[in-house]
Every structure is written in structure tokens, then in C-alpha cells.
């Protein structure tokens, strides 16, 4: 199925039933004009994950494109993994750095929404694939609006009244990183409680905001919280609610962290390089520090 949006050359191909759409007909190495930004935002809001493919981009071009969609994070909450010339780009890579394994090689290995452990959780992320392994290294996305809407009204009422405590220690792969850096990153990001339902500022849609990085619900014990976290995560990640992206080099995949959670799969040969660059659009201020580790 194809639709052409009015007044632009943009062509839209849905990629999944629950979420995901490819946008074609736009050269993203050039900054988009306002009409194009509006058309992209409309598609993005409806499909939650949008994909641009087939154009090799320079780091500067990724930044120039991404900044049209909001203020970019300088990634100061994880300062060690930034691109050396562009702090707006985080390097997610398994290429060795100075002969040592990269510390971001296992980024994203559990279900999460980006920077949920900060006071300004990411609004959106735009991940560019520079180099991919021959097989695998896919990323999966879950539609959290649909996850919320398919809960019973009673369960919706329960989650509406909860705050989820996000703990950076639950970030997959953190323990494999340099202990001094990890300590600093943990001190920069103490556990923080966010509403368990996130309201999208543009669409007004309600999305479940609970992931595998939640330690407990504020005011509840960990053992009381566990079954509910597990239920909500497995409810949200049912196969019907997923789009699985198989990367090609040159893909730019953009997701809305307010309505989507994602996971990076380790389904590839670690000896083969996988090199990605991520721009992150800042979200609204949210949550309160709970101050316990
Ligand atoms: C991320 C992330 C996914 C991937 O960049 O936020 O989770 O597949 N990465 O590398
Ligand atoms: Mn991520």
C-alpha cells in the first residue's frame, strides 16, 4: 500500500501492522523544509517508528537532519560514548576502540525507552546504521499506545495512578563497562520515578511507560511490583505488537520514545562489526528523584 502526502514528494510504505513505516522520496542528506518536517511528523505520530533508507550519511548530515525535529541531547548523561566531533551523536558500536572492546557493544539488550533514567527522558531517537554484520543485529520495537489501549479499563486505572522507578543499574551490559565510568554514570543518574503512563504532548495519546529498566513502582515494594512489571512488559511485547527492523547500511530509523520501547538483539556474530550513530531529541522535564539505589 502506498500513500502520497499532499504538497510533498514523500511516499509512505507501512512496514508493520502495529507500528513502523518507511518514508521514501526525500533526500535526507539535505535539511528538510518546514512542509517536509510537518509531513514527516504527521507520519511519525501515526506509525511511531519511521525508516529512511538507501542514503549514506556523514555525521554532520545526521545532526543537521535530526535537529529539525527538536533540541538534540548532548548526551552528557552518558558522556563517554559520544562521537569525538559531534556530542549530539552517541556511538553504539562493537568496533574496538584503542584495541579494547567498545563499552557500548551491548547497548539496548533489554526492553527500554531511551534515557528513561534521566529527568528529561528522550522524546525521540534517530539511529543511523553505518556498518552491519552480515546476518542479524536486528532491533525490535513495541507500540506502547496499543499496549495501554489493550489493557482492561480497570488495569488502565491502576497504571494511571502509578509512578515507575527507573534505575540505570538495570541497563543491560552496564556491568561490562569500566567500573569507574559506571560509578560516575550511576551518580549522574540516581533512580527516578516517572508516571507509568506517558501522555504524548502532540497527539494527547496515552502510552504505557513501563519497561525492563523499572525496579519497582513508587510506594510499593519490589516484590509487590515484580509481577505487575513482568505482566506489563510481556503484554506490551507480544509478537502482534512488534515491528522488527532488519538493518541495511545507510538506514536511519527514528522512533518516538514516548510511544515505543525497543530492544537491540544479540542475534549476530560478535566478531563482525556493527557500528551505529544515534541522535537523541530531548523530551520534557519529568519525574522526581527517589534517592535510593
Ligand atoms: C539505542 C539502542 C538499538 C540498537 O541506540 O538506543 O537501544 O539496535 N540501540 O543498537
Ligand atoms: Mn535504546
Describe this structure in words.
There is one protein chain. With 293 residues, the protein is α+β, with helices and mostly antiparallel strands. It has one domain (3-283): Double-stranded beta-helix (4-Layer Sandwich), CATH 3.60.130. The protein is 21% helix and 25% strand. It is built from 6 helices and 17 strands. It has helices spanning 34-47, 59-66, 144-149, 153-160, 179-188, 222-236; strands at residues 3-4, 11-14, 21-24, 49-52, 90-93, 124-131, 139-143, 163-166, 192-195, 197-199, 206-208, 214-217, 242-245, 252-256, 260-264, 275-281, 288-289. The protein has an 8-stranded mixed sheet, covered by helices on one side. It has a 4-stranded antiparallel sheet with strand order 12-8-9-17. Bound molecules: N-oxalylglycine and manganese (II) ion. N-oxalylglycine is lined by residues 92, 107-108, 114, 125, 127, 139, 262, 264, 276, 278.
